[in-house]
Amino acid sequence: MAKVGNIAVAVGIVLFVVGVAAIAALFLTPAVDHGATAPLWVYLCTPLAPLGLVVAIASVVVTGSRR
Fold first, then answer.
1. How many domains does the chain have?
2. Which residue spans within the chain are E strands per DSSP?
3. Which of 3, 15, 22, 23 could serve as 45's disulfide partner, Cβ 3.0–4.6 Å?
């Protein structure tokens, strides 16, 4: 079962990193593209940061409580 917990933590970290990159792109796009708004996919990827954080923390808590 520890392997499943490790995979869940890795998935959570990847989701978090993608979400943070989308948040950074959301703020950097107007500065780089002369005031243009970010594309829709950037807006749709921003909720991945808190989702990844929840997945990673939940998997660590669940895995830690089994020991």
1. 1
2. none
3. 22
